[in-house]
Amino acid sequence: MALSTRTTTDSNWWVFTLPAFFGVDTLHCDLPLLLLSLFIAFVSFGLIAWVLSPGGRAWSHGRARRGTVPIPGPRGLPVFGSLFSLVRSLPHRALAELSAAAGAKPLMAFSIGSTPAVVSSDPAVAREILSHPAFSDRPLKRSARELMFARAIGFAPSGSYWRLLRRVASAHLFSPRRVAAHEPGRQADCSAMLSAIAAEQRLAGCVRLRPHLQNAALNNIMGSVFGRRYEVSVPGGEQEAEELKAMVREGFDLLGAFNWSDHLPWLVQFYDPANVKKRCAALVPRIRSLVTSIIAEHRLQGPSREQDNGDFLDVLLSLDGHEKLDEDDMIAVLW
């Protein structure tokens, strides 16, 4: 290990030979020329790494740790990879064209900025990827991290914490007895949705189904998770319901929006056209305020007497020992 460290340190002294290579006395070299030499060397080695790396720049790092057999794929542009190839047309068609051009049907490696990506056009290979534990982690977008989803079941890294959340959800949120116990609430949500659809059809002659489906789904989730339902089918109804719908819409927009900094992290300091960072910073306090108030109400009321008819928040509050979650984790899970 000591020999490896010394070799790495000694190998860095090559940068001081660059001025001599360009015909300049090293001892009398001015700083701007030295910086220019370093910049040229950096760009040169970056271009060499890009040319010699199938799949692009993101796949050039740590090749020896992942194996010596390269996965074929387009190199893309030196900094952006194949990012612009995906935005020119429908992504699945662009990927099919790239795969055909590279002759990489079973597996194709490509880069989206600094993000390494792999795509399979073979059903057997895709099935193996989806079932292999090496691919069990989910990519964490910057907006998801800012919105506390790093500790939620949908984005938490594979490990003991994620397995705990999955076990609690499968045993208490999606168990057959609990699903059956919440059947009356779902029927009430469906009846309210159908009434709202009929009323809109009478007034306007046509109906936009999406908002009605979203309202019914939101009410169903609120009933199962928090044990409360709102009059969401009435525009301008309860103030808390309107605030909740606005927060959910904003959260979905932030999670679904394309964010350049997810693939070009250095760009976030200069370019954020969707104002993702500012919008996330404004949304998080609203989320904390709403969920914290509901948690406080549940702690005052105590758990539901009917165990199967209790909500998911009651379950989280009843956990103890190593399974007990702190309040920040509960907010992330419930939100």
From TrEMBL:
Stretches that traverse the bilayer? 31-53
Write down the InterPro entries for this protein, in alphabetical order.
Answer: Cyt_P450, Cyt_P450_sf, Cytochrome_P450_78A
The family classification in the record reads: Belongs to the cytochrome P450 family.
Query: Domain of life of the organism in this record?
Result: Eukaryota
For the keyword Membrane, the answer is: yes
The record's listing under PANTHER family reads:
CYTOCHROME P450 78A7, CYTOCHROME P450 78A7-RELATED
Give an example GO molecular function: heme binding
Q: Which Gene3D superfamilies match?
A: Cytochrome P450
Q: Keywords of this protein's UniProt record, alphabetized?
A: Heme, Iron, Membrane, Metal-binding, Monooxygenase, Oxidoreductase, Transmembrane, Transmembrane helix
Tell me what organism the protein belongs to: Musa acuminata subsp. malaccensis
**An individual GO BP term:** system development
Keyword Amino-acid biosynthesis tagged: no
* Annotated protein name in UniProt: Uncharacterized protein
Q: Could you say which cofactors this protein requires?
A: heme
